[in-house]
Amino acid sequence: MEGNREDSPMIELRTPAEIEAMKPAGRFVAEALATLRDETKVGTNLLAIDRRAHDLIRRAGAESCYIDYHPSFGASPFGKVICTSVNDAVLHGLPFDYTLRDGDLVSLDFAVSIDGWVADSAVSFVVGTPRDEDLRLIDTTQRALDAAISAATTANRIGDISAAIASIAHADGYSINTDFGGHGVGRVMHGDPHVPNDGKPGRGYPLRAGLVVALEPWFLQTTDQLITDPDGWTLRAADGSRGAHSEHTVAITEAGPVILTDRSWLGVD
């Protein structure tokens, strides 16, 4: 789930032992998202996805970061354990009674706490027959995330991550909204620093070993403006165009970035 500037306490750095302690949460989030993506098909109801996610959380002895979450930008406690954003919905999609149709673009955003440590990740995909423009949008968010992770080194600053994301988006013709973006992760889901999806290289907080951040490029096809659904949570493209969202929790170390929510070992991206 995306953070914004007003949710953040002070920046905290984690010891190598604490980063190691965060890995079980990251592995679980990776496994759960891979499972949920594999099981989500044409005909799947969004409420069924939430029920399945809830079951996975219970079986793992984890705790949802979403169900009681009530920041200033949410109308009420979220009440569900996963964000399910479909088509023109791109962020904070509150699951409701909707059955997925052929060609729907789905974004799943999932965060849990295990032993007091949080991991947060998101993935976008199409169920059924994809549109070329949707696959292109998803690919852009994934490549922007890869670029962001590559920039997450102790030689850089927050602005270098932001600029890396923006360079991919702008090259593919997408505009960027900076109201919601990446954020620090640790004992709580949303912490400092805010990591906008656009910025200037060499600017901002210097990246230090022990900083753990959720990096999350999200783009809309033909706008950068959002509107909020009557549910008080789901954010949609103001012009009805589709959106996609990719996210990983990443630890910055002296040896380079470590993707705590990496799914590649599961044979998926």
Write a brief caption for the model:
This protein is an alpha+beta fold. Helices cover 27% and strands 23% of the residues.
How would you describe this structure to a colleague?
The chain has helices spanning 16-39, 46-60, 132-151, 158-171, and strands at residues 63-64, 83-86, 89-91, 105-114, 117-126, 182-184, 191-195, 212-215, 218-220, 226-228, 235-237, 243-245, 248-253, 256-259. The chain is globular, with a radius of gyration of 17 Å. The strands form 4 sheets. A 5-stranded antiparallel beta sheet has the order 7-6-8-13-14, sandwiched between helices. Strands 1, 2, 4 and 5 form a 4-stranded antiparallel beta sheet that branches. The chain has a 3-stranded antiparallel beta sheet with strand order 3-11-10, with no helix packed on it. The relative contact order is 0.21. Helices cover 27% and strands 23% of the residues. By secondary structure, the protein is of the alpha+beta class. Helix 3 (132-151) packs antiparallel against helix 4 (158-171).
